[in-house]
Known about the structure:
About 30% of the residues are buried. Helices cover about 40% and strands about 15% of the residues. The two termini are about 25 Å apart. Strands 1-2-3-4-5-6-9 form a 7-stranded mixed sheet. It has about 190 residues and is α/β, with parallel strands linked by helices. It is built from 8 helices and 9 strands.
Amino acid sequence: xxxxxxxxxxxxxxxxxxxxxxxxxxxxxxxxxxxxxxxxxxxxxxxxxxxxxxxxxxxxxxxxxxxxxxxxxxxxxxxxxxxxxxxxxxxxxxxxxxxxxxxxxxxxxxxxxxxxxxxxxxxxxxxxxxxxxxxxxxxxxxxxxxxxxxxxxxxxxxxxxxxxxxxxxxxxxxxxxxxxxxxxxxxx
Length: 188
């Protein structure tokens, strides 16, 4: 399960202890949690942030850079911070499908993630053509309206109990795909 965190939360002195306490209370294993933050969030007091993120990684919690490439991107973040996942920003996925050059940034992020042994998730997938292109690029995971629209809490609980989310494809309306992000598989 992925959880977005803000820069304000990250700078709280007891942030790591609070996260670990919430995980214990919820009865969830730390390896089942990924904390997502933007590049900008990491800029706040980077030495302390790096230490907190390392403590969370040491506890088994994943760390993801959300909207990678749209903030104050620096490749040094990928060396300095204990990241496990890069999330390709929607800006690099929601591009003209016939313009192969428009996909070059997404391709570069996928290649970078693979070279650094990081998981890569594409955000904002809304069409089969985008999913197919991402698969061609070697992207492991995707999320977006193609798989499911926003749901009410009851529907989310029901889907989680059954191990996944709706595919979003009308032909596969009841199909379930793995969480936290869907591996890219061919529909049909």
